[in-house]
Specification:
heterodimer; A: mainly alpha; ABC transporter involved in vitamin B12 uptake, BtuC; two-stranded antiparallel sheet; B: alpha/beta; Rossmann fold; 6-stranded mixed beta sheet; 10 strands; 27% strand
Chain lengths: 306, 237
């Protein structure tokens, strides 16, 4: 058995801190912290979904925020139209996002490189404009959704458990033949085919699974904010998700959590000073990507270059 | 008896540039053939066509009597075709162990190697089982590329410069391995610059010049003058 890497230790510490946070928030009477951490964890789940495609599979999707949005809208529609509970909402959110991802993957995976980025971006924008055109759901402005969870600690722990499960699932998938085919395919498609593996099929399955995780994150967003709007679906949000994965360490198990934590922390710190906090986040992203190609996870592991 | 591999007037190329013109080859089951030629004569294109990576325009390639033209590349490994490609092309982000297990076949018709057998063959690799492919030396990468072909259980093993850049003792082990594989019934197509070893291993030789077979025949008939003329190599070491 090999020793756990420093990044694995760090992510475990981070998860333990997240688990202990509600106690700390209660002791210090800072409920806002919990709201923020819940948001962080939901974003980290979405980034974990994207990491499967982008980090492990080497497929740079710029349409994943739209998949999160599909999940968020599906949960909202179920709540508004049928009054369905959390389980029903979650089920339909995951189902709808999986289906959307399957379609997005089936089209975009015919292309490579820049074309792949553009096709995922275009398909994501289509979903964005579709949501913006949904007048009964508020169109551009979005719509309030009946609150399923009233910001209680139970919801916090549910999100926490899902994030921990998604992180563990990433570790597991990476080591399966499926994960190895994805990782190998990111480097050399021909050689994966030479192993007798149908790489396009593996990638499509990964894309759909990634959509399922993002759909889950979407449902959680709807639960968390009791509100849906197309604003969360646009390509710039997709690019933020990509940035979180890259900063955290593309392909690393702990990458999405590190990247999201860095993103949310910088956003909180900097937005106190200026609304143009992206001006600072941009250079930070560039520095991290240039200095440590393995992102934060790679940097913690002492691996700056492959 | 059906040949293991049969190329019948195959033409292939990249874009408008033809590389192979009307190339015909035949390899009996368990046979070993050397594919020789100077740089740019079409050896690697032949390998790529056999691996389904370069589509051929005319002619046919049959493996065990089965036409390969309609098969996608990932259907070739289960038939028992394995390639050790030029330049190794191992997966740099996968560990040595993962490089082998990722290639462990779902189904195959050939005698299949386990990673343990590969470790026994190349103890140097076993010692580095958890190292990333990118961190291996050239020789270790070459061993891994060979091991990776073996775990797919090949009936036909195609080696494109598999001994290039190896230290002499390791090179000798690879030739020994190939002789053993051949004795076990695995068909071999070997591209290599070591004519001395090829003379020992391969009864049949085909020399490519500008994408066509300029010379073919039993290795014993390959005289020094021909080798010198077509390969720029001295015929005897």
């Amino acid at each position: 058995m090999t020793r756990p890497s420093p990044a694995v230790v760090a992510v475990t510490v981070l998860l333990m801190a997240l688990a202990a946070a509600p106690l700390l928030a209660a002791a210090t009477a800072q409920p806002f912290v919990l709201f923020l951490l819940t948001r962080l964890m939901i974003l980290a789940i979405a980034a974990t979904g994207l990491n499967l495609v982008l980090g492990i599979g080497g497929m740079p999707s710029f349409g994943h925020a739209a998949l999160v949005g599909v999940g968020a809208y599906a949960a909202a529609i179920v709540a508004l139209q049928t009054g369905g509970g959390a389980w029903t909402q979650t089920f339909w959110a995951v189902a709808a996002a999986t289906l959307a991802a399957f379609a997005m993957g089936a089209i975009s995976l015919r292309t490579r490189g820049i074309a792949f980025i553009l096709v995922t971006l275009a398909l994501g924008q289509m979903l964005f404009f579709f949501a913006a055109a949904l007048e009964p759901l508020g169109g551009d402005d979005g719509i309030n959704v009946p609150a399923t969870f009233a910001g209680d600690a139970g919801f916090y722990y549910a999100v926490f458990a899902l994030l921990a499960a998604a992180t563990a699932a990433t570790a597991w998938v990476r080591a399966t033949p499926f994960g190895m085919a994805l990782r190998g395919g990111a480097v050399n498609e021909d050689r994966i085919a030479a192993a007798g593996i149908d790489l396009p099929r593996v990638r499509l399955l990964a894309f759909a699974a990634s959509g399922a995780v993002c759909g889950l994150a979407g449902a959680l967003t709807t639960f968390h904010t009791a509100f849906v709007s197309p604003a969360a679906m646009g390509w710039s949000r997709s690019a933020e998700l990509v940035a979180m994965v890259l900063v955290g360490g593309a392909g690393a198990v702990a990458g999405p959590l590190f990247g999201t934590a860095a993103f949310v922390a910088l956003e909180e710190l900097l937005s106190g000073y200026t609304t143009r906090w992206h001006l600072v986040f941009g250079p930070v992203l560039v520095i991290v990507v240039l200095a440590a190609r393995g992102g934060i996870a790679g940097w913690i592991d002492g691996r700056t270059r492959d | 008896m059906t040949p293991l591999l049969e190329l019948d007037r195959v033409s292939a190329g990249y874009g408008a540039a033809p590389v192979l013109t009307d190339l015909s080859l035949s390899l009996p089951a368990g046979g070993a053939m050397a594919l020789l030629g100077r740089n740019g004569m079409g050896k690697t294109t032949t390998v790529r066509a056999l691996a389904g990576q370069t589509p051929w325009r005319t002619g046919s390639i049959r493996f065990d009597g089965r036409e390969l033209a309609d098969l996608p590349p990932h259907r070739l490994a289960p038939l028992g075709i394995a390639v050790v490609p030029e330049g190794r092309r191992i997966f740099p982000t996968l560990t040595v162990r993962e490089n082998l297990t990722a290639f462990a076949p779902r189904r195959t018709k050939g005698p299949r190697w386990t990673p343990e057998q590969v470790w026994a063959l190349f103890p140097e690799l076993a010692a580095r089982a958890d190292a990333a492919g990118a961190h291996l030396s050239g020789g270790e990468q070459q061993m891994l590329a060979i091991g990776r072909a073996l775990v797919t259980g090949p009936r036909l093993l195609i080696l494109d410069e598999a001994t290039e850049g190896l230290a002499p003792p390791l090179r000798a082990r690879v030739w020994e391995l190939l002789a053993d594989l051949r004795a076990g019934g695995v068909g071999l197509v070997v591209i290599d610059t070591s004519l001395a070893e090829i003379r020992r291993l391969c009864p049949e030789v085909t020399i490519l010049v500008r994408g066509a077979a300029a010379w073919r025949g039993p290795v014993a008939d390959l005289d020094a003058a021909t080798a010198e003329r077509l390969l720029g190599l001295p015929g005897r070491p």
